[in-house]
Structures are given as structure tokens and as C-alpha cells.
Amino acid sequence: MAASKRKRGGEGLAVKKGKFVVDEGEAQVETEKATRNEVIVPAPVSMGKWTNKERVLIFSSRGINFRTRHLMQDLRTMMPHSKADTKMDRKDKLFVVNEVCEIKNCNKCLFFEAKKKQDLYMWISSCPHGPSAKFLVQNIHTLAELKMTGNCLKGSRPLLSFDPKFDKEPHYALLKELFIQTFSTPRYHPKSQPFVDHVYTFSIADNRIWFRNYQIIEEDASLVEIGPRFVLNLIKIFQGSFGGPTLYENPNFRSPNLHRRELRLAAAAKVREKQMVKELQKIKRKEAKEDIDEDVTADVFVTPNEEKPVHIQTEPLAPKVVKKNKHKAFKRQRMQRGRR
């Protein structure tokens, strides 16, 4: 009985051959080494060609916090067709972003702009000719923070699910096209995997766009959330890239500065109301004390004074006699008189 074992690897790999001889329960193995130039090329997964050359630049301005940094990293992990860049200086104008995209060979951009170290704005733009949209980002929850049970293959292509309201209004239809071109992974991209195992959902509720990322389970096609999640509050849509004529302005948008001011005014009004209540209570207590101090029956035993007859003076008063003091000598003169 003879058998042979072969190990195939790279080019020029040694192949071992073994010969087994069975004789009365004893086995003898003879090995011989031989070299063969064999190259094994796996069959291609798909014969398609990468034609959609969409590239997305994801970066931010200075002054962002750790949560925004983690969100940007999560988006870069989810989007294999994305690129990163260093933080942009605050002094630079937003039109500089178009030049950065041209240098990086990107035609889409996700730019996160931080203000006052507490407000986060997101620009999504088609560079260099536009259109672009500006959002206020709220309720950010990153992948590390959520700890969801969902999982998907890194680099796999997602499905994009949109709310039916995106087709009813023109500004939502424009945003839908922007989202499709930005978040969808191009087919046959070198860094992408030829699988579809997760879905991005864009829902509209309370005049805001809610972003969620779900895993598609193969057994029953149910969804399990992966993360991250955030809410986009639309501010304006511009015709150009990071500027230009305004195509749409959200009438329901309220600036976070105005919202904080209203909260402060409400808190101040509440404090003033408490102070007024305290003053009213003090006045009431004072009036109650005065009512207690005044006794109604105190004047019962008080007798009126006897009325005296009125005396009318008809004669003038006698003049007062003023005594004139004699001149008193000085002390020195009195002493001289005493010596005499």
C-alpha cells in the first residue's frame, strides 16, 4: 500500500512524498524531497470592473471632542471608499475644503465642524461644484459606547433604506441622492467585500433625519443594530460646495445658542418667581402679626379724660424783670485789691 502527501504553498515550495509498507504490524516510512515550481491562483470572486470611482473625504476642524473623533473613526471603518486627512485650522475658510478634496482625489466630503466645544455641525458636499448641505448633529452614540450585539463583515457593501417621506418633498429628494452617492460603497471597489450583510436606514421623524446601522441575519432576515447612531437636523442646502446660493432653509431649525438662552431665561424666571413668592409670604406673615397685636376689647375699660373749661386770656402778661449783673473785676485786679 502506497500513498503520497503533498503540501502546496508559494512558488518553489518543497513537496514531500511518503511511501508506507505494512509488514507484520511494523511500518516503514521512506521520505523523499522533490522541488516543483507550482503556482496556485484562486479563481476571481467576480469578473466585474470597478467603474464608480466615488471617494469620500472624512475629516474635521480643530476643537472636536472625543465622541466626534470616535464617530469619524466609525464612519471610516464602515466606508471602505473613504479617506482621512488632518484637522483643518479654524482660521481657514470653508472653501479650502474643496482644494483639500482635489488634492486627495475625492469627489465627496463629510466635514465635521465644531463650535464652542459643544456644538457639532456636519457638512455633506459634492466637490467641487456642489450641492452641499449643513446639519446640526445631535444624540451621537459610537460603536464602542453602544455595545450592540450586531456585527458585520468589514468592507462589505451596505443596503440603503430611506423613509417614504424622502420622495414627497424636493429638498428631501436632493438629500437622498447625496446620501446615496456618499454612503453607498461602489461595486467592485478594491477594498470592499462582495457581500451584503448590513443596512443603513435614514428615517424622518420630528423634522430630523435619524441614522441607524443594522445587521441582516441570514436565518430569518431580521435586523440587529450595530451602530453608530446619530440624528441630523437640517439647517440649509446650498447650490455650491460649502457655500453659494441657498436652495432651502429649514424654518423649524432653532440655533443651539438660542435654545440655551431660552433655558437660562426660564431658569432665571423660575428663580424670580420663587423670590416673589417668598416676599408675598413675608408680607402675609407681617399682616397676620399686626392683626394679632391689635386687641379689639382693649378699649372697653378705658375712661375718657375730664373736660377742662377753656380759659381765654384777656389781659396781657406782666413783663419779666431782667437783673443786670454788675461789672466784675478781673482776677488780677481783685488780687491787687486784696494786697492793699
From TrEMBL:
Annotated region (Disordered), positions in chain: 308-340
Domain of life of the organism encoding this protein: Eukaryota
Biased composition (Basic residues): 321-340
One Pfam family of this chain: Brix
Keyword annotations from UniProtKB, A to Z: Nucleus, Ribosome biogenesis
Compartment(s) where it occurs, according to its Swiss-Prot or TrEMBL record: Nucleus, Nucleolus
InterPro entries: Brix (IPR007109), BRX1 (IPR026532)
Ranges where the Brix domain occurs: 54-243
Purpose of the protein: Required for biogenesis of the 60S ribosomal subunit.
Family according to the record: Belongs to the BRX1 family.
Protein's recorded name: Ribosome biogenesis protein BRX1 homolog
